[in-house]
Amino acid sequence: MVQKAKILLVDDRPENLLALEAILSALDQTLVRASSGEEALKALLTDDFAVILLDVQMPGMDGFETAAHIKRRERTRDIPIIFLTAINHGPHHTFRGYAAGAVDYISKPFDPWVLRAKVSVFVELYMKNCQLREQAALLRLQLENGQSGRTGAAAAQEPAGLLAELSARLAAVEEQAEALTKQLDESADAAAVATAAHLERKLTGLRRALDALEPGAGSGASPLPAPS
């Protein structure tokens, strides 16, 4: 069973959170509410999120300050943030949002379909990245198990079989990532395109590591990457 991605919704107004839940419920992912910046940071301590929808205008810790805290933490700094704001103060205000680390900046009222489409892209990228991490972890575990307590022909044959199986699984992830990249045409968000390119680079690194472990590839193989 594929685990659902978590989406963090941050807004101090309950009616806005309810509206976001109504818009995003069609994605069939796990929606997590936070009514303040402090509450959002607390949720980020324990859970992993595919994307954060963050209201700019909040009492106390506003969206800009919350985003700054998120980007300073190693655990959360790579989570995409979409800023939502009810007012538009012009280019300077928008620039401040991007400077704070947002991948997008949307003014209310927004088109529900557009918002849902933007969020779905980051959810899909997150899911592909999770698959990549799982494949890398499985490869390490199976290689370690295959190399311990084995001698002779059994030690040589089992890793080869594991490599073939993992290579096929990685190929499936590569195919899905390639299809996703093709969907991100010139009209897509630059941040989504950049994230997809980053995912493809990780896949390329893992593929090179697998190829280096193939019989006859030599003993100078690089260590397996640790996708994040």
From TrEMBL:
Residues 163-190 form a coiled coil. Signal peptide: none annotated. The keyword Coiled coil applies. InterPro entries: Bact_response_regulator, CheY-like_superfamily, Sig_transdc_resp-reg_receiver. Keywords: Coiled coil, Phosphoprotein. PANTHER family: RESPONSE REGULATORY DOMAIN-CONTAINING PROTEIN, STRESS RESPONSE REGULATOR PROTEIN 1. It comes from Streptomyces telluris. Residues 6-123 form the Response regulatory domain. It comes from the Bacteria. Pfam families: Response_reg (PF00072). GO terms for biological process: phosphorelay signal transduction system. This is Response regulator. The modification 4-aspartylphosphate is found at D55. Gene3D superfamilies: 3.40.50.2300.
